[in-house]
Every structure is written in C-alpha cells, then in structure tokens.
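Methods: example folding runs. The two proteins below were folded one after another, and each record is reproduced exactly as written to the output file, sequence line first and structure-token line second.
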Amino acid sequence: MLCCCVKSENNKKYAELDSKLERKMVESRRNYPGHRRLKSMDSIIMKFPKLREGLRNIRSVFESYDKDGNGTIDMEELKKCLEELKLSLSEEEVKGLYGWCDVDGSKGIEFNEFIVLLCLIYLLAKPSSESSLESREMGPKLVESVFDPIVEVFLFLDKDGKGKLNKADVIKTLNNEDYPLERSPSHVTNMRFEEMDWGRKGKVGFREFLFAFIGWVGLDDADDCI
C-alpha cells in the first residue's frame, strides 16, 4: 500500500513538473524570437554541427562529476554538481528532477538524461544571484549555445503556441510545401514523431521532445541527421 502511495505521489509531482514546463514553453515565445527565423527542416539541421560541439563539451562536464566512472551520476554526485553550478535547489526539488529525468529507472542519470536535466534546470530553476548555471567547466555561454537553439526548434514546431507539439502540425511543418526540396518522406516524419510521443497521445511535451532531439543531433559528425 505504501509503495502505491509513493508511486502515486511521484506521478502527481511529475505531472506538476510537466504542467510547469508546458507553461514555461508558452511564456518562452516572447523570450526566444529566434524560432521565427526557422523556415524548414534544413534550417534546423544546419544547427546540428554547433549543437554537437556543445554537447561534447557538456559530456566532459558529465564525466568530471561521474567520479566512479560507471557512466551514470548518482544522487550524491548530482548534488555536488548542482552545488558547483551554484543552483539554489531544495532537496525535494533535486529529487524531483532526478526522478523525472531517470526515465529508465536505473537509479542513475546517464549522459542523455543529464543533458535533459540541465536543460530543465536552465528553464525552470531559479539560480542564485552568484551564478546562472555556470561552473569552472561550463559557463553561461556554453549553456545558452546548446539549450537556446533547442528551445527555438521546439517553438518552431509548436505552431499553436500551447506548449505541446501536435502531431498534425509537426508533420505539416517538416513537410512544408513551400520548401519541396527539403521535405521528408511521410514515413520518416511519422517515425520521428513516434520517437517523441511516448504515450501515443498525439501530443508531445518539451521533455519528451528533448530526449528525442538529442538523439537526432548525435554527438559525432558522422551521426545520421533527421
């Protein structure tokens, strides 16, 4: 019974985080005008090389906090990381974000989950007056250069501006008739949306989009693009 209550409480907490992030994405349309400059799939793909470089730099940060070298960051290592980044997060907030990003339930944050966690902190958390998500290894310019373009891509795909991606709008955007030479085959666009749509509900929040988008970008120049 206790286990069920804990699970229910966690689900409620994660649903609240999802709602908070959805509201944040609606508000972000005013703060990220760059999404208006995106016109087609090619304009997104052109951002991939710079994003890969930024992700590789973040991987170096991840490895520096993975003290035991097991490829994951546990709760204690994460706390040290957030302390170094001078983020004023409560114990409850840290646990909430940790559980929200540990999507495979491995009790450890892997690198792709670490990227998502940092991005969510960047968007949702209130940094202390001393810092804005920076450390000796990772300054604000690196954070902005990686996460701001990703937010802009989400906003570009979120045509109705409601903070979630609608399947019909995403497919229409990726197959924009104004750019016939850049259109993706319908089976590809459907597959890309399904990679994001974990619940198969036809709606995708920023967290799910972020996990999928990181995979599309890849970490190596030889990785396949969308």
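Second run, written to the same file directly after the first:
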Amino acid sequence: MMNEKALVTKDLNAKHTKILDALLKLPENRECADCRNKAPRWASVNLGIFICMQCSGIHRSLGVHISKVRSITLDTWLPEQVAFMQCMGNKKSNNYWEAELPKDYNRSMIERFIRAKYAERRWVAQGAVQPSPELCDLSSTTIAFIEGEPKKQSPTKARRLSLDEEVLTKHMSQTGHPQRLRGCSLDIKANSVSPSQTIRALPPSNELEKSIKKMDNCTQDLFSLVPSQGPKEEPSSRPPSSWATFD
C-alpha cells in the first residue's frame, strides 16, 4: 500500500481531491451516511461511504477488516479507491446496510448503531451480496478519474474548406469538371494569386475583343498626332551658279 501511494504524484492527488469534493456535492453525499450530520469530510474507502469526523472515529474502532477510514483532504488516495467511491456513495451503500432498518429508528446512540450496522450486519437483507470493488467495473472509471474527468470521444469533424477552395469547388461543379481537393489546406501566400481571383480577373470573351479593338483605335489616334516628315531631298546634281563660284 505504501509503495502504491508513492506512485501517486502531487498533481494526481490534487485531481483526486477535486473529484471527491465533487462527489460530496451530490445530494446523497451531503450528509453523513450514519448520523446524518451535514458536510462530511471523511470516508470509508472499502464501504464506499462519506462520514463525519465523529463517525470516522467509531469506524476506526471497528478495525480495518470492517472499515478503512480516509480523510478527503489529508490522506493520499489511490485511483481505485476514488473510483469505488464514485461507484458507490451513501445512497447505494445504505440500500444494502440499511435494507431492513425501521424508518423511525433512534440513532442517538450512534456508536451502538454503527456497530450493529456494520459489525453485526443487523439490517442487511437476507441473501444480499455486499458491494465491493470486485463487483464494480472500475476499469473505465479509474482511467477517467486519473485524467480528472470522464473522457468523451468526440465525433470526427469534417475539415472546413477555405474561401478559395470553396469558390474553386463551386466553379468546377458549374463547369461540369469535378475537382478533387487535397487532404490538407491550401498554402496561400500574401503575394500569390488564388484560383478564385484568377477566375474573377478574366473578363468574358466579347468584352476582351472590345478592349483589344479599343486599344488598336487609340494606337492609331496616337500615330495620327505625330507630325509627318517629308522625304529627304537628295543633293542636287546641277552645277553651282556663277555667283556661288565668284571669288
């Protein structure tokens, strides 16, 4: 037992304390299982009940073969002990130990009552089997307690398409050419052009032809504004005049 307690880390023990505090908040565990006093802070780990400090002393006097007492906050709890407390609780335990107890029974003599209840088994129904950790399925419960809360397997969610993938998929479906997307997200850089942007950037064919014709007309207008230069005159072959040769 001591070696097992040494394996319980500080974080794990803190989780156990948190789980036990949550169990104490349940309606059936808000009172001592024996004297009905409020806010019990002790427990019998083999009986699976929460008890008050006064009753815990009486349980210790019964011997560990009948009741093993632990403090909720002061002692180190093992995972299987916490799991059994969750499996049992005061209501389920008393259904066994007080099955034939009269409703108006006087509990003022609490020590005598506890000894008659557990040591003498006075009010246990005939043929009933005592609850024990062996009768509880602690495998899944213990694992859930070690992690701090029960594990719930969430359903697998489908990957959400990015905006560019959504536009591209819609376009391919309209054109009749289905496109299989990759399993991972598209890596889109800041300066890259996405397929959807390329599709939106291309104008219809008739508008493209009009733009080309308009550009041709503008080019012709620009050339018309340039002043025309006549053909260069070749040097004259006529002989120079007499005045040009006058010395």
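Comment on the second run: Strands lie at 42-44, 49-51, 69-71.
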